[in-house]
Target: Histidine ammonia-lyase
Amino acid sequence: MGDVEVGPEPLTFEQVVMVARDGALVRLADTAWAAMAGTREHIEELAARPLPVYGVSTGFGALATRHIPPELRAKLQVSLIRSHAAGSGAEVEREVVRAMMLLRLRTLATGRTGVRPATAAALAGLLNAGITPVVHEYGSLGCSGDLAPLAHVALALLGEGEVRDLSHRKVPAMVALRAAGMEPVTLGAKEGLALINGTDGMLGMLVLACQDLRRLLTAADLAAAMSVEALLGTDRVFAADLQELRPHPGQDLSAANLRALLDESPIMQSHRGPDCTRVQDAYSLRCAPQVAGAARDTLAHAELVGRRELAAAIDNPVVLPDGRVESNGNFHGAPVGYALDFLAIPIADLASMSERRTDRMLDKSRSHGLPPFLADDPGVDSGHMIAQYTQAGIVAELKRLAVPASVDSIPSSAMQEDHVSMGWAAARKLRRAVDGLTRVVAIEILTAARALDLRAPLRPGPATGAVVGALRARVPAPGPDRHLSPEIEAAVALVNDGSLVAAAEAVTGPLW
Model:
């Protein structure tokens, strides 16, 4: 894993994940040093003038009408960070905070914020030292940037507040800085505002969610294929010529996955003859690529929004190449908030379809010969009855999480900030939704694998059989009731780390 160079150029999703999750080091590009040095000169010049400039020599928000004299401007920036570090609630995950720090660093590196190169270098130093400021779940309205979360990051640069060190211990920021050989930053004109005025928190969570969903949608196709096979469904509906009649790209990819996963399946072959009276399957089987495909297309849109935002330089005011310092509204989180909310809808729907397939496998009147609840001794054993309850409970929550946050707005700052995006809230609920979908898909795979085993002596196809084999390395074959929760968690872990999809791809080649 190499370093990630941070400069005016956009970062990629992969680079964000490398730093946020994998702990990759960062370094400021030469172009970043030059860009920051150039615009900092303009800020210093404006700070010396008597004319008020927002963020340089005035108060903030509704207090922007006050001109701050030079002798109070250092206090102005420090007071801004202290007062805005007003978060509350649970700690935000380390990967989210690191993503937020990296994305703020990248905006600083564009030179459009006017910070000193040394201040940006200090933020890079926090990342490289593994120091993660303690950021709380509540505090951002997603407008004027993710103010409170970013203020907690900036507070650590001042040597104040709490952080997690490289060993994940919670310690005072000054203790962690000194242990890393770093000195606290003394903020200059405009720098406090520049450190907190961006959509970096919600964008970081969008990037991480997109990366997770890209992998998870393939696992959802895998679960659907296993269920179709276990329920003696047909794969004819996934034929390429049928998919071409409705040319949505995601649907085409999902159907291609299903065809590859079900190829050469003895179970599928066992009921292709003229004696088969089942003309068509239930929607949760037959329409799997239509729903999973629409989810893929929604994800593609969210990724487009993310790439655009990764190319942005968000601050207010901004320093333009000609030296002008201009106020703007680019900090408003609507573009990112909408994408975050949009993704929660197909997540809920995909999970709902997955749960319906699981329920079908457990119902002896609809499972075409499988024992009730896939139990070893029905009545004595309950099999996977309550695993479906767990799915149903998660699906119900996912439907609630699909209600958009971005349609809400609570005015703030004495009505100066009279419309806010709630993008941070949209991001927080999306993270919970991604986790929920992971669990629902894992339970479907766990149930379908049990059903496939119970179809013996008929055997699943090479790809789905490889998945059952990979699962059996962690979860025993069907038998009397066992403590089921650890088996569910094992399946969740195998979905999360990509092991089950990798097992299938060892047979099929790359899946989409």
Q: What stands out?
A: The domain at 205-316+325-410+418-508 is CATH 1.20.200.10 (Fumarase C; Chain A, domain 2). The chain has a mean pLDDT of 95.
